[in-house]
Amino acid sequence: MKRILLPLILMPGAAFAHSGHATSATVLSGIAHPLGGADHLLAMVAVGLWAARFGGRAAWALPGAFVAAMVAGAVAGLTGLPLPGVEPMLLASILLIGLATALALRPSVRVAVPVVALFGLFHGHAHGAEAPAAGQLAYLAGFVLTTAGLHLLGLGLGRRLIAVGRGWLLQGLGGATALAGLGLAFAG
Fold first, then answer.
1. In angstroms, rounded to a whole number, what is the distance separating the alpha carbons of residues 136 and 158?
2. What is the maximum alpha-carbon separation in the chain?
3. How far apart are CA 166 and CA 145, in angstroms?
4. What sign results for the dihedral spanned by CA atoms 22, 78, 129, 152?
């Protein structure tokens, strides 16, 4: 794991699709924020795709852990608490969750949940740090809603692919996600 994360930490953060701080403090601006950055969008759908591999209640544990940790990270970001390596960890989330999906990895939930939660913490911090100065609760509610929706999209798609015997396509989507993460790393 250290061999994978070290090069990611050293990569530039310029490739990420963040447009800066939100200008309005509304639920709608919070809803739109995760949709405006390819790094957030890819990672959040990937969490759902990977969760589909787990099935049952375990499939809900990954998105739930991500959202809960994301809220904690957002609060840290809103309050100005520094969290080093946010951009590299966003990239790592895309690459590693995409790769786990591509390889059809299904570790113990006791392993997968903390990994996903760690990534959620960093995504939340990025959202919180980019939040407007006023109306933060509405903004937070909006991006939590979008995140949950993107997780559900990935989970639903992944479950459907598995149900119709197209698990290989789910793996392909995981691989494409990881490749898109690499593209973000080397763009710009």
1. 33
2. 48
3. 29
4. negative
- CA-nearest of 135, 79, 97, 70 to 8 is 97
Place of tokens 């950055």: 37
What pLDDT digit, counting tens, does each position of 26-83 carry? 888 889 888 888 988 999 999 999 999 998 888 999 999 999 999 999 999 999 999 9
Kindly report the number of other CB atoms within 10 A of residue 79's CB atom: 10
Q: Which of 137, 138, 98 is nearest to 119 (CA)?
A: 98
Burial (0-12, 13-18, 19+ Cβ within 10 Å), 176: middle
Enumerate the domain spans of the chain.
24-186
Count of alpha carbons within 13 angstroms of residue 86, beta-carbon side: 22
CA-based torsion, 68, 72, 73, 78: positive or negative: positive
Look up residue 135 and give its DSSP letter.
-
Each residue of 73-110: pLDDT tens digit? 999 999 999 999 999 999 999 999 999 999 999 999 99
